[in-house]
Amino acid sequence: MHLAWLSLRDFRSYPELELRPGSGLNVLVGRNGAGKTSVLEAVSYLSALKSFRRVPDDALIRDGAEAAIIRGGFTTASGEYTVEVELPREGRRRVLANAKRPKRFSDVSSDVPVVAFLPDDIDMVKRGPAYRREYLDDLAAQLSPVTRQDQSDFERALRQRNALLRNHGPETSDADLDAWDHEVSRTGSRVAASRFTLIDKLLPVLTDTYARVGGSESVGWRYEPNWAEPFSDLKDIDRSSETIAAAIAQRLGERRRVDRERRSTTVGPQRDDITFLLGSRSTRTQASQGEQRSMALAMRLGAYELVRNSMGTPPVLLLDDVF
Q1: Residue 15: CB atoms within 10 Å
Q2: Is 50 helix (H, G, I), strand (E, B) or coil?
Q3: Strand, helix or coil at 7?
């Protein structure tokens, strides 16, 4: 798969842009602030339907414009796949895939997979657990639409439980919490299980990609859930969703008083951490800056390999300031 053409109007600093890249490697060269990253951001948006810079849609609209338009065509094994997005300053965005509204936005990212590396990806290694959870969850969802739905179901259940706690605090009834504890543990167990399945597939690929970008140590990992003891071997736990759900539910029950006081859910996969290791060293706290950057690049290249193996065709690969 490759990007056949890209058309922008009032996107970021571009009043207009028409781009027809070649089918192989394409290099964008220009001074700082010329808009190179914005082009990659637009390509990524056509797949993920969100900015890889983690900014709201209105930040993508050129100053003074009422809307931004991103259009692109991707060459696939079955022909060209087009995506069109209109981002208005007021109102809801409009998305068309092959001139039709997609049933689910997740269908678009499955049909036109894109993997992007950014300089900020070092945050996956250096900063807090949210970045590593996002990496695993985004990749798991890209590989499986079912997993994306599981994540959506969990996020909905978590929002409902948090809204209940926020509104009632210490007065939240056990009966109400029982219902949402069941939903959070049931859907959360599927999110956790999908991470374990992904780690099984990812680790050997990650070891290989890290070696290819210049690393010499073996790559390992440690999963640190807040509903069980930390572990670094998937053989250490029963990975069935029923067993995980029971563990989360038990911990939710034990933390009810704390959750009522804090008016927030303190147990679940939304608070788990994943530590990647070089040998026995944590990449976050004990690796050098160069090792951390190599690890971040290896994580994106590992994602590229997994998506390629799963789809049977290479996804579009975007590398921003990779050197």
Answers
A1: 11
A2: coil
A3: strand
